[in-house]
Amino acid sequence: MTSEHPGQGAACPSGDGSVLLQSPVLQRDDVTYWLVAASITLYATLSAPALASLGIPYDLPTGPVVAKFHPGGYVMGLAAIAALSAWRAPLPGRARPGGVVLAIATYLGCMLFDLAWAVSQHGAAGMAFYFDTLIVPGVAALLLLRMSDADRARLLHWMIVLLLVNAAIALGEFAVQSRLVPLDIGRDDVVPEEVFRSSALLGHPLANALVTITILPAVLLLPWPPLGKAGALVLLVLALLSFGGRSSVLVGGIIYGLAGAIEGVRHVIAGRLGYRQLLGGLVVLCAGLGIVLSAVALTGLGERIYGDLSWDNSAQVRLLAFHTLDFVHGTQWWTGYSVPDIARLAERAGIDLRYEAIENFWVYQLLLLGITGVVPFILGIAALMWSLWKIARPPMTFAIPLYLLLASSANTLSSKSVSLLVLVVAVHGSAVFARGRNDPASAASDEHVLAPAPSGERS
Where are the domains of the chain? Predict the structure, then answer.
């Protein structure tokens, strides 16, 4: 039975029994989708150096407050407003199983508390990273839960296309040994690198490496032809080598290699892989490795990774991060330090802030927030990772601990970074394809669980 709602057109049943609205105008949930897509596009294409080249001092010590927030963050805020205008309550009436919505809300609550605590103790200077790095991914996670499977799938497709473009640009940069956007725009304290590393659209080479290694399992779950997926994976792996992220390549290779072996054995035991499929997979894998190794041999890709595997200064600075804790005293253990004071602690520990940082976001957050704030921070991160784990399907499940491990060896979540947003979109989007492939019943039951009720039918 169909019904009419003023301004929305007629509602009619679709083939699967759900209700679709036929309307000549754009619905408010469509606006939310396009705003989230626009936000992801801005984050994936406008790095801090790119914004500086446009005259926006996003990551520079000078400039107005409004310039310290990424344009993608403003658009994500508009998406949240559009979503709230389409629903009576900010949280859905029926949450996904396992309290995923509650976990994400807990995460956002903890991050907002920490931001308020840090500002109350040390002022607002240096705190803008909380918004883009930590709060926006939580908002995106709630918005993704409200979207249909089709919209989540489209967002993942689009984000992977953007990252493939980023990978292609990285290889082009490596070929000409020059960056599309120089990293030293607006800065005069950048130390020249001994080995060239691509930076493409996302800015810092190591940020590129973390995002690229995180997205690899999501590509495997896409409903693309095998050759299309193989080509995308080869492109991303070659780009990963051009970024020169040793931890991402080595740790990611080990974890994904073990995950692949475990999944392969599990499928063979379950009878889902036959002899021909197994042989075909090995042939494709060997062909892909052959292409990668040939590119490495002919071009020198990944020289920073395999050229010197000794314990160098880059590895040593990870230990110096813990050395900063030796200079914490008295009540600062509970209240933390201001950003300028943390910089002085880092210098006392032997960290050269011209080209180094406190390469451990847990340590940095402890220095900034003290014990009072770092406990909610740990609780919040645990809640978000648990929510992603509940949603994720293999092989994307392996990307979650890998991300946390790699991010913990850098200042990823204590500086401006898009990596957590990429992880959130990759997990939510890839789960759609995994459900459809491995668990059709689950996909059917989950579809439209958090879809908005049509106007006049809200409860």
Answer: 25-446
